[in-house]
Design a protein that fits this description.
With 433 residues, the chain is of the alpha+beta class. Among the domains are: 34 residues; 180 residues, 3-Layer(aba) Sandwich (Peroxisomal Thiolase, Chain A, domain 1). The strands form 4 sheets. Strands 1, 2, 3, 4, 5, 12, 13, 14, 15 and 16 form a 10-stranded mixed beta sheet that branches. The longest helix has 20 residues.
Length: 433
């Protein structure tokens, strides 16, 4: 394999992650990305139109923002000549935007790229059934009052009152016909993960986020202000009262009879955006930039869609092998918390000799990952999972964790990795500079 030419991370920013509350949120996806992107660009020594391109990962763009990457680039003031484009790799769309930027920088097409991800999942559309859509179509074609009255006579209330919830359809794998939570149930069964273990993991995620907020450890956040002047300064999904007792009261959602996955041990449906500025060595020198880190490897992997939550195992393991690293040779890990069972399943898989041999082609188990290095400031169970943004968020926050001064020590290397609906995984190896 050819050597990976490192790409520098100059800076980054994200919005607070705002929990969906069953109504459209106060910001569109392009609002979220534009507000945070402007704040990020405002502190740079170059103008927005000096970017070579803007790449945005988005899993659920609105129909009026289809190529949302271009919409955002123009709203950021990059000008007509800076290309803006959109990528979609489901849960890893923001990570794919980063990897696409890396590829263009490495092959010399770009020197300075703004890459990240966004989704406003609270604004995912309601969809009518095919029967209701056909009724609307025929009504639009009707030319006489009699024809319209006849169509109204055929309208059934159930057709009108039974819209398809877009987010539910989007979170269902069309190949194996399983919702993402059902794939997490598969992992809970496969590795014998108990409901109590999942709930305890979730409580810990909320505790870690609350502690990080109190300590001011989310310095990458750019506050949002809505049209009424209300300020959103912090992630609002964290529950200070989260406890195993409270979570134990919740009923399983995806398998109501035998299941263990509940809304409490799953990631939250959320709105948010995250950005990174990526640069070549030449751009760093040209603009006298001070990078916060560099990306030294990336990896994508595929696996059974019915066990998609193990994607981080399949993506991160090849990176470890290429660099001669063990799980605990890294200083920090970010594994996106789609579900508690999904993260716990990854930890079990790495420590399972049979799985490592049969699925990863290894001679033995990789071992037990030191959970003190994992998601040290919590994860998506407490923060939320705006699908397009999460892959970029974990890369950015991992760097902040590594750069943090812990008893006079700073971390050097870490991996951010994410599972992907459809049966894939993505991983990024970062280093501080």
């Amino acid at each position: 394999m050819a050597a990976f030419a490192s790409v520098y991370i100059v800076d980054g920013a994200r919005t607070p992650f705002l929990k969906s509350r069953n109504v459209p949120g106060p910001f569109s996806a392009s609002d979220l990305a534009t507000i945070s992107g402007r704040a990020l660009l405002a502190r740079q020594p170059f103008a927005p139109d000096q970017l070579d391109e803007v790449i945005v990962g988005c899993a659920a763009p609105s129909v009026d923002e289809v190529n949302i990457g271009r919409v955002i680039a123009l709203r950021l003031g990059c000008g007509n000549k800076v290309p803006g484009w959109t990528v979609m790799r489901n849960c890893a769309s923001g990570m794919q935007a980063i990897d696409s930027a890396i590829a263009n920088i490495q092959n010399g097409r770009s020197q300075l790229v703004m890459a990240g991800g966004v989704d406003a999942l609270s604004r995912t559309h309601l969809l009518y059934s095919d029967k209701m859509v056909m009724w609307f179509s025929r009504m639009a074609q009707a030319r006489t009052l009699g024809a319209r009255i006849g169509l109204f006579a055929k309208l059934r209330l159930g057709m009108l009152l039974s819209p398809v919830i877009g987010i539910v359809k989007g979170l269902t794998d069309p190949v194996v016909n399983l919702m993402m939570g059902q794939t997490a149930e598969n992992l809970a069964w496969k590795f014998g993960i108990s409901r109590r273990e999942m709930d305890a993991f979730s409580v810990e995620s909320h505790r870690k986020v609350a502690a990080a907020q109190a300590a001011g450890r989310f310095e990458e956040i750019v506050p949002l202000i809505d049209t009424s002047g209300k300020v959103y300064a912090a992630d609002d999904g964290v529950r200070l009262d989260s406890s195993e007792q409270n979570l134990a009261r919740l009923k399983p959602f995806f398998d109501r009879t035998y299941g263990k996955i509940t809304p409490g041990n799953s990631s939250q449906i959320t709105d948010g955006a995250a950005w990174l500025l990526l640069a070549s060595a030449g751009a760093v020198e040209k603009y006298k930039l001070e990078p916060i880190g560099k990306i030294t490897d990336t990896q994508w992997a595929g696996l059974d869609p019915a066990q998609m939550g193990l994607g981080p195992v399949h993506a991160a393991t090849p990176i470890l092998q290429r660099h001669g690293l063990g799980l605990n040779d890294l200083d920090a890990w970010e594994i996106n918390e789609a579900f508690a069972a999904q993260v716990q399943g990854c930890l079990r898989a790495w420590n399972d000799a049979a799985y490592c041999r049969e699925e990863l082609g290894l001679d033995c188990a990789l071992g037990a990952l030191d959970t003190g290095k994992l998601n040290v400031d919590g994860g998506a169970i407490a923060l939320g999972h705006p699908v397009g943004a999460s892959g970029a968020r974990i890369v950015l926050h991992l760097l902040h964790v590594l750069r943090r001064n812990n008893d006079g020590k700073r971390g050097k290397r870490g991996i951010a990795t994410i599972c992907i609906g459809g049966g894939q995984g993505g991983a990024v190896l970062v280093e501080t500079v």
